[in-house]
Automatic annotation (TrEMBL):
It holds the Pfam family YceI. SMART domains: YceI (SM00867). InterPro entries: Lipid/polyisoprenoid-bd_YceI, TTHA0802/YceI-like_sf. It comes from Arthrobacter agilis. Belongs to the UPF0312 family. Residues 11-178 form the Lipid/polyisoprenoid-binding YceI-like domain. This is Polyisoprenoid-binding protein.
Length: 185
């Protein structure tokens, strides 16, 4: 399979200023709570074909923020991410399928030291040259995981039935990458 149009071979750098990695989870069965990670590093290595290409990402769990200091402290603690013992989450792609704008990125997601295979539904948003001459590519992706699969089992029963935190977590990614510098001799 061919790589998306406009992607040149080499390792593309992650652009954290124009990217976001976040998630949402059902709270008390009636609303969704969202959070994001501010310290993320990733790379997109483009090979001669889709099969020769890869994506890796490292997310520092202590960079989690939801806009609520008390909740952030709880989520960073031992009940959830346990940032002291598990300072990073990682994703390493294993294969890619698709064409045009729509892809599936298969890979291994590791949270709290537990690795599970996941599939990201991805949309290739294209390539553009910015006003400063840098070539950029954009990707949107999402997947839904069971937090229990990753040892995130803390919960509290609700008086009316059900639990405080849902099991399904939707992970969303908006990623921008910058093309490798072209070396001229």
């Amino acid at each position: 399979m061919t790589v998306p149009s406009g992607l040149t071979s080499g390792t593309w750098s992650f652009d954290p200023a124009h990217s976001e990695v976040g998630f949402s989870v059902r709270h008390a069965g009636i609303s969704k709570v969202r959070g994001s990670f501010k310290d993320v590093d990733a790379s997109l290595t483009v090979g001669s074909s889709l099969e020769d290409s890869s994506i890796t990402a490292t997310i520092r769990t202590a960079s989690f923020t939801s806009g609520d200091e008390n909740r952030d402290g709880h989520v960073k603690g031992a009940d959830f991410f346990d940032v002291e013992q598990f300072p990073e989450m990682t994703f390493v792609s294993t294969s890619h399928t698709g064409s045009g704008e729509t892809y599936e990125i298969h890979g291994d997601l590791t949270i709290r030291g537990i690795t599970k295979a996941v599939v990201l539904d991805a949309e290739f948003n294209g390539v553009a040259v910015d006003p400063f001459g840098a070539t950029r590519a954009g990707v949107s992706a999402s997947t839904t995981i069971s937090r229990k699969d990753f040892g995130l089992t803390w919960n509290a029963a609700l008086e009316a039935g059900g639990v405080l935190v849902g099991d399904k977590v939707t992970i969303t990614i908006e990623a921008a990458f910058v093309a490798p510098a072209v070396v001229t001799v």
